[in-house]
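Q: Two folds, back to back.
A: First:
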Amino acid sequence: MNITEVLNFAVRQISELETNIVSVERLVEYCNTETDPEWRNDEGAKLPSLELVVKNVNHHIEGGKKIGIIERTGAGKSSITLSLFRMIKLAEGTIFIDDVDTTKISLYDLGSHITVILQDPVLFSGVIRFNLNPFNIYTDDEIW
């Protein structure tokens, strides 16, 4: 490695660090933002004019299988993923994992037993192996 490569690497790392610091600062600022006292927050948000994106889906995936959801923009890939993690509430129906309603599974267990590789690669930090096994519970053979 010559000095130019080392300096380029250092500049990239410093730039990435600065970007991450700004992101953390924004999160901290958001978390510390006071709720407007005049804003009623006892009724939640209502979006009555939205159309459902995913309708009439009924699919069985065998245990231990890995699947990919590939479809055009706006077809519902993110909606399905967010529903699996209970980040959005289903308008109707139920999602079962091992014959257990996902609303009965803790958010921690859902998050630690489902792996999602999103389409935007900038969301990854580190190597793919770490993103597939962030808690380092499984061996390489178990992952693949």
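A: Second:
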Amino acid sequence: MGDAAAVRNAVDAAVRAAHSAEPGLIVAEGGFDPARVARAIHDVASAGRARPFLAIDCGRGTPDSIARALFGTTHARRDAAVEAIEHDSLLARAAGGTLVVGNLCELPASVQLRLSRLLRDGELTLGETVMPLGTRLLATALPRLDADVREHRFRPELFDRLQRIRIDVPPLRERRGDMPVLIAALFEEACRAAGRQMSLAPAATTALAALSWPGNLAELERVLEQLVRTVSGDVIRQEDVLEQVGLAQHHRRSGPLASLREARRAFEREYIATVLQEHRWRMTDAARALGIQRANLYRKTRQLGITRLKPPRAL
């Protein structure tokens, strides 16, 4: 239930963001493109009407260039009662639509102050006219943003104003329950992009779902695209996944000099251990998921040194 609840919470928060004018904060690990979530929120909120959707990456540019892009000026106007913007700024051009402030952890301190003031007042000056902030602001950030706030590297008042609606995108390792559905959807996209009609063998899906995917969605998409491009037949088998994914994932752990046999053994051990854990060590169910006989599974666990961890004894 844990992974299902995390996905459901993220979807519910995204729906709330789409039906609200409040700012939103999308938090996701590397390997995800949170702009996809922002775009989905924008599309639902726009309800088919053409509305501007603009974005800025705070990780690119100097403090002055980022301030100029957002507000149209490098410094706040001292004579303005509320934050002032220019007609060529992103905030002005995104009026009535959505502005995505990406890579929020990299937002310069001087710009944090101006953006916090804007959200506090809910108004801005355009030319000589004071008007309500008519742009939906969505920010995206890595999970380290929470630590940045605690350690005074990011303004807490801006953080609080942006996370009025917070969307925490769960990493793939916490989404075991819906991995087969996700894999099927991404595989279909990869086949369509490559112009091929292919299928995934059940054992291949099980192998893909069992991995931890430290690179998250980007890594999974890349592997599926590679499988679709390189497998010659119409069916992607478990062996194809072992060849493509096993070596790629265990290259980092085993080192560049690891042999093919070592890489395969490392992957096989992790894969079988994960399936056993998912099935709570019910050997018959795990063997069925792996596509092997139960006697072979017992033999594999002995050969690979896979043992069931005992729960800690209560004190």
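Q: And?
A: Residues 173-304 form one domain.
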